């Protein structure tokens, strides 16, 4: 009887913790549904008022002409985010590997603090840095790439005018997502079991071979999660992109041209002066951004789940 009485409080605590954990999970799901419902309800007036194809037109003037399109904005959001991932992810993974596998403890600890501190810099600071210093600095590099790689459409300039561009936005976003991806990769790499590392060394592997055979396969799912988190940060960024990217609703693969816009930057630039229909149209574009983020997250989860099944098999 005394043993049952002593176990009873812990059993009650387990039940309370289980209830709190389950409630937290359902709360997040309900919050996601409420956000989606809000966006849909607020976007309906603009969609009913739309006089053109919402997904194909390039014009954005919902209050006057009733025309507003998401195609160019969605294209710009995805392109700038992909550029940020292409530039930032390899550097971030390298930083995570250096801190966790190569750097001595005296260097790894302060370097980790610096990386974490970089993630706390406000977006407007990155935007001002990009506008004042980065955009002029990238002009010679853009000219060089256009000269030698201009045969490829991505590096070609249609009018030889450089400055605010999708390339500059991608570089700024790459710097912004770098600390997040690097910090997550570092934590994943540190958790690699010592048995895996010692087994690789026992087989005669070098440091790089050990990382390739033990560290990277073990941290693959964590790296994918870090990349998705970085993509979410990049595609939703507003102020920094608005400062370094000229707002023009066009679809172009020429990343050096002063053209392009993103959904988040368009919302930041147009929301203050928009009327009732304009605000509804901006919320409709936010709904599309919300859908893109969900699709990317579900795709990443599918990749991670498939990798886990292959690892167990």
UniProtKB/TrEMBL annotation:
State the species of origin.
Amycolatopsis alkalitolerans
MF GO annotations: phosphate transmembrane transporter activity
Which InterPro entries does the UniProt entry name for this protein? MetI-like, MetI-like_sf, Phosphate_PstC, Phosphate_Transport_Permease
Mind giving the lineage of the organism this protein is from?
Bacteria, Bacillati, Actinomycetota, Actinomycetes, Pseudonocardiales
Provide the Gene Ontology terms for cellular component: plasma membrane
Protein known as: Phosphate transport system permease protein
NCBIfam families hit by this protein:
phosphate_pstC (TIGR02138)
| Family to which the UniProt record says this protein belongs | Belongs to the binding-protein-dependent transport system permease family. CysTW subfamily.
What Pfam families does this protein's entry cite? Answer: BPD_transp_1
Q: Major place of localization?
A: membrane
């Amino acid at each position: 009887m005394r043993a049952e009485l002593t176990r009873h409080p812990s059993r009650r605590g387990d039940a309370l913790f289980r209830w709190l954990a389950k409630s937290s999970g359902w709360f997040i799901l309900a919050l996601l549904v409420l956000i989606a419902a809000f966006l849909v309800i607020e976007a309906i007036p603009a969609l009913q008022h739309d006089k053109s194809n919402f997904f194909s037109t390039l014009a954005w003037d919902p209050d006057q002409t009733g025309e507003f399109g998401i195609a160019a904005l969605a294209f710009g959001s995805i392109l700038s985010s992909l550029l940020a991932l292409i530039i930032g992810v390899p550097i971030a993974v390298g930083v995570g590997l250096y801190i966790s596998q190569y750097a001595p403890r005296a260097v790894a600890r302060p370097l980790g603090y610096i990386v974490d501190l970089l993630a706390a810099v406000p977006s407007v600071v990155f935007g001002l840095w990009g506008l004042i210093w980065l955009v002029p600095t990238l002009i010679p590099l853009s000219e060089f790439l256009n000269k030698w790689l201009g045969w490829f459409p991505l590096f070609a300039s249609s009018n030889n005018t450089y400055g605010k561009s999708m390339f500059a936005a991608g570089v700024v976003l790459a710097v912004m997502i770098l600390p997040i991806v690097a910090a997550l990769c570092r934590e994943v790499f540190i958790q690699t079991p010592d048995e895996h590392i010692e087994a690789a060394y026992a087989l005669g592997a070098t440091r790089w071979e050990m990382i390739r055979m033990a560290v990277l396969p073990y941290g693959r799912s964590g790296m994918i999660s870090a990349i998705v988190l970085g993509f979410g940060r990049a595609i939703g960024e507003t102020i920094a992109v608005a400062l370094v990217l000229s707002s023009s609703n066009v679809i172009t693969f020429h990343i050096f041209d002063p053209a392009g816009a993103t959904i988040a930057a368009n919302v930041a630039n147009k929301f203050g002066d928009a009327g009732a229909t304009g605000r509804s149209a901006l919320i409709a574009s936010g709904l599309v951004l919300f859908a893109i983020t969900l699709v990317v997250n579900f795709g990443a989860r599918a990749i991670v789940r498939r990798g886990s099944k292959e690892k167990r098999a």
